[in-house]
Write a structure and sequence with these properties.
Blueprint: H1 14-21, E1 27-30, H2 44-59, E2 67-70, H3 75-82, H4 107-116, E3 123-124, H5 125-134, H6 141-148, E4 157-161, E5 167-171, H7 174-183, H8 186-200, H9 207-224, H10 227-232, H11 234-239, H12 242-252, H13 263-272, H14 280-293, H15 299-308, E6 316-323, E7 342-348, E8 351-357, E9 362-367, E10 387-392, E11 395-398, E12 415-421, E13 424-429, E14 432-438, H16 475-482, E15 487-488, H17 502-510, E16 513-514, E17 517-519, E18 522-523, H18 527-530, E19 550-556, E20 559-564, E21 570-572, E22 582-584, H19 587-602, H20 611-621, H21 623-626, H22 629-632
Length: about 650
């Protein structure tokens, strides 16, 4: 945009800054956006335009009139979609010859339709033959080469090479490829792309096929609806160019939520947090890091990725990671992501040790090279020559300094501190502490600074499924979370006879009840000393004619918490002013909701905000109790003195 506004030095907030500085009611012209992207199955033009247009609308000065002129390759369609006016420019390409009709089964017509299936605009002859076979028209390379000598073929396509002499073919006009692709029914096209994915993934593929697969396999996988399977294939991921992979990712999950806990979810977290590599080696290093952060379950995949990298040199490699990767949590235990303030590498007689300090305590220590737990280092055996750095908006700077530069490998923005000793670099992120080994012999990527993306991802995560174990708490799940001393069991013979609800009696005797406090203004600690005692109270909401005993469980939100001996419901006595008495439709459901809330409350979250999932889970566990005022207010900090 020629608006007389200097480019900002950071992508973060860039469009907003530019939009606010625009004055004098300009006409903003966006040109060549229709060519964004490398694949034919792409969402890049729409993503780029959407980001720019939204920024102009949201951040322009009040009272300013901006007119937007967008160059597109489908005037009537885009004008109708955006409710705008169409302007037709003079000049451009001359109209090409008439393309084959869908009923034309001549060899040239079939070959052209197959070529239009390509995801990359330039196709080697052996791959063109593969495309023909996928369409159900077997044509050898020799047959295709003879077609190139046909005068009719030269009207639509032209031969070229890949720069090394290997022959390639391409349509003269991209509109011809789009027209021919549109002739193929969607289901048939999907099946064709699936066959192409299988052919391109063959381990004994030829050099031209591997050349094409690096640039187009991800696009075919997206078009075939097999992109998730591609991401799970670590060997295939290593062979696919990162730029086409990221582009196909946006196309594959456009309007389709990504299942949590999958390779696609890991990729989304990386993209969302700015992980935009500048080379294939840097991409593989980042991908390997996400697998290492995912924990032992993905360690084998991490090893396969390194093995499949082949001749690609990684600028650095993750040796070990200790923490919880983005999206890798479970409800079995509290998620701990310590906020590291400082990293330190200490040289001891038995080797170098990494320690991390938070505001309150130390984390670790670990062996620098292996990540094995080590004892707290005593007095250092000689001071190692280390380099300490923090990462800011422009990349690495000396630790504690406001500016300056430190020569460390680029990292995503969620990586905050670094401590380097020789070729080893200890790093702390919002997810984990990890150590990488720098390949000083690898060619370093020319860009420097922070890893970042100009246009953010448009994908979304699907809601997380309610873990089956979370809705039916067991004694093990309660003790794993709060410790055995906090869970009080009541043998059946000690339970009051007036407690007639079978479910409550079984739960108290086999599972137990958590005697806890410190969150939600819940205090059930007294139950361990007093046991179940009939209070003689009756909640104001309960009918007077009902004959039942109410047993005290403790206090919640300023009201006494009662167990209805007749039907096992958990109720508030009404003394807090909350009109809804119901706290749990059963004892088991109440404890399940309390455990879920405490797990979320006590866990450390970095990127993934699970509050929406926890709300939905609570509603699934006990819909009636969740709708009450008591449970509706539990996510509002200001309601609770102990919710800090």
């Amino acid at each position: 945009m020629a608006l007389g506004i200097p480019a900002t030095d950071s992508f973060k907030g860039n469009f907003a800054t530019v939009a606010y500085q625009i004055t004098n009611d300009p006409v903003v012209v966006l040109a060549n956006t229709q060519w964004a992207g490398r694949l034919r199955t792409t969402r890049e033009p729409q993503r780029v335009l959407g980001r720019v247009v939204r920024a102009l609308i949201e951040y322009h000065r009040r009272g300013l009139r901006i007119r937007l002129l967008v160059e597109v390759d489908d005037g009537p369609g885009r004008a109708a979609e955006w409710r705008g006016r169409q302007l037709t420019l003079e000049g451009g390409f001359e109209p090409g010859p008439a393309l084959p009709s869908p009923d034309d089964d001549a060899p040239l017509a079939s070959a052209l339709r197959a070529l239009a299936l390509a995801e990359h605009r330039f196709v080697p002859l052996p791959v063109w033959s593969v495309l023909c076979s996928a369409l159900g028209q077997d044509m050898s390379e020799a047959m295709l080469e003879s077609l190139l000598g046909n005068a009719a073929a030269t009207e639509w396509i032209y031969p070229t090479d890949d720069g090394t002499g290997a022959p390639l073919v391409s349509f003269k006009q991209e509109a011809a490829a789009r027209h021919l692709r549109a002739q193929l029914p969607a289901d048939e096209a999907k099946r064709c792309h699936a066959r192409i994915v299988t052919a391109l993934s063959a381990p004994d593929a030829s050099d031209p096929t591997r050349w094409y697969a690096e640039r187009a396999l991800a696009g075919h996988a997206a078009a075939a609806g097999r992109f998730e399977a591609l991401l799970e294939d670590t060997e295939a991921v290593a062979r696919v160019g990162f730029a086409s992979l990221f582009e196909a990712f946006e196309a594959a999950f456009d309007g389709q939520p990504i299942p949590q806990g999958t390779a696609a979810a890991r990729l989304r977290y990386l993209v969302r947090r700015g992980g935009h590599p500048s080379s294939q080696g840097e991409w593989l290093a980042l991908s390997h890091l996400t697998l290492m952060e995912a924990g032992p379950a993905e360690r084998a995949a991490a090893d396969r990725l390194l093995a499949a990298a082949g001749p690609v040199a990684l600028p650095w490699r993750t040796l070990w990671a200790r923490g919880v990767g983005a999206g890798e949590f479970s409800t079995d235990a509290v998620v701990k992501r310590p906020i590291v303030q400082t990293l330190q590498i200490t040289h001891t007689p038995s080797g170098d040790v990494v320690t991390a300090r938070t505001r309150r305590d130390h984390v670790g220590p670990w062996d620098l090279a292996t990540g094995a737990p080590r004892s707290e280092p005593g007095e250092a055996a000689g001071a190692p020559s280390t380099t300490s750095a923090d990462q800011g908006p422009r990349g690495w700077r000396p630790a504690g300094a406001a500016d300056g530069e430190v020569d460390l490998p680029r990292m995503p923005e969620y990586v905050r501190q670094g401590e380097r000793l020789g070729r080893h670099l200890a790093l702390a992120s919002t997810d984990a502490a990890f150590v990488i080994e720098i390949d000083q012999g690898a060619e370093q990527a020319p860009p420097s600074g922070l890893l970042k993306r100009l246009v953010g991802t448009g994908t979304t995560l699907a809601p997380a499924d309610l873990p089956a174990t979370a809705s039916a708490p067991t004694a093990e799940r309660l003790t794993d979370l709060w410790g055995p001393a906090a869970v009080q069991r009541f043998p059946k013979e000690t339970l009051p006879s007036a407690l007639s609800d079978v479910g409550a009696r079984e739960f108290l005797s086999s599972v137990g009840f958590p005697c806890v406090t410190g969150f939600l203004e819940l205090d059930t600690t007294g139950l361990a000393d007093t046991g179940l005692a009939d209070t003689g109270l009756r909640p104001a909401s309960e009918p007077a004619e009902e004959e039942t005993a109410y047993y005290s469980l403790g206090w919640w939100q300023g009201a006494r918490l009662l167990l209805d001996g007749r039907d096992g419901r958990v109720l508030q006595d009404g003394s807090s002013g909350l009109e809804d008495a119901l706290a749990g439709s059963s004892l088991s459901q109440f404890v399940a909701m309390v455990r879920l809330y405490y797990w979320w409350f006590a866990s450390d979250w970095s990127v993934e905000d699970t509050a929406s999932d926890v709300r939905r889970w609570l509603e699934l566990v006990d819909p009636d109790a969740y709708r009450t005022e008591g449970w509706q207010r539990v996510f509002e900090d200001y309601n609770f003195a102990d919710r800090v």
